[in-house]
Each structure stands twice: as structure tokens, then as C-alpha cells.
Amino acid sequence: MTEVPILEAAIEYQRNSFSLRAQFALHSNWTVLFGVSGAGKTTLLRILAGLTQPASGSISLGKTPLLDTGRKLFAPPGQRNIGFVLQQAALFPHLTAEENIAFGLDQWTRDAREARLEELLHLFEIEPLTRRKPKQLSGGERQRVALAQALAPKPQLLLLDEPFNALDSMARTAIIEKLRTTGVPVLYVSHDLADAWQINADALLLETGHITAQGPARTILAPQREQILTQLGVVSAEP
Question: Exposure string (b/e) for 49-83, b if CB count within 10 Å is 16 or more?
């Protein structure tokens, strides 16, 4: 029996002189979408999240179709069961951290909502921040709250568009490990070779709007191995 992919997509997008053509399937719980600035990484994530509509194509999350332009099917963002965390945390400025996290839980019972809040506040170590509003938080604190907000309704997939830029390397590694414990599949955008190498999960390589390779990160990024090791401060033992 063939395993159903976490997500499967075949899309075409065109805007002005930029074109994006991508066909891929996610099977790993952690996939790095790697590419230089301008390759189309954010555009691809926005299409998956339903924030940008492609010219044509299809997207399925598990067995659920989210987009099929041939059948004029388009699931809006709020019905996709996909979490999305941007480079700049998109929090509601008038709500406290706790209220931001609970925003997508309005249909939950009070007990279930409070239990979920407690779980996420503990996971991201943000219990002291519950009553603060976004302007009272540091960049790293805002990103932790944004991650908790995206995970709160238990999405089937989490999209991360370089949300760890405000964190140092140790904090970033700790957050990634916490995310791994949730079991939620992640598609993580990065243009940092060393970052992608250290995660050592699956990788999608996006170059000028095209997926050019997919597979284990250290295989896909092997041509840049020496550059990566230099960034990490590691001296290669190979000749």
C-alpha cells in the first residue's frame, strides 16, 4: 500500500518576470526548503498556506485536496489546517501573548483551551509573558509566541519562513528540538547552508523558481559541504 504524502503539490505561478514551477511531495516530518534570496521560497509557502493563488495546479494535505484549479477548488487559509510563522511575527498588537495564542481556539471547550494554553506556554517557556502585548516583547519572545499561536489548533503541517532570525544559534537549536517533540510535520525555509546542514532532515532545493533537487539534506547540499563546514568552524579531515 502506497504511503500517502504529508503534502503533495504541483503548481505554476507567474508574476511579472518571476515564475515559479514546483512539483514535490513531503514524506518527512522535517523538511528544509533551501534557496538563495529571491528563489521563490516565501512565494511557495504563501501558495501552500492559501495566501497567494497560483495560475494553475493542485495541492493536497494528506488525503484532503486544498487546491485544484482544474476543478475550481480553493480552500481558504482558515480551512487548510496549516500553521504559518513568518520572519516577522504576525501577532495581534491589541491582544496579550496568551490571547494571541488562544485566538484560533474559540471553538474549543474552556477546559480544552486552557489545557492547550498551559501545554504551549510550558513548551516554549513563555509563562511569564502571558499578560504582555507584542510591543512589550523582545524579537525572540514574539517569535516564541507566534510559534505557540500557530501550533495551538494542532495543524497538520507547520510552515516556517525563517522565523528564528531573532534568536542566537543555541536558542534556535533549542526551539527546533522543541518543535520536533510536537510531532507536527514542518516545512522550514532557510537560506543558511549551515542551518540546513545541522538539521539533517529532508531538503528541497529551490533555484530561480524551480525545485531542482529533493532528498536528505546532507546529500542535496553535498556540493557546498566545504563552505558549510567553514561556516560551522569545522576543519574537514578529507583531502
Answer: bbebebeebbbbbeeeebbebeeeeebeeeebebb
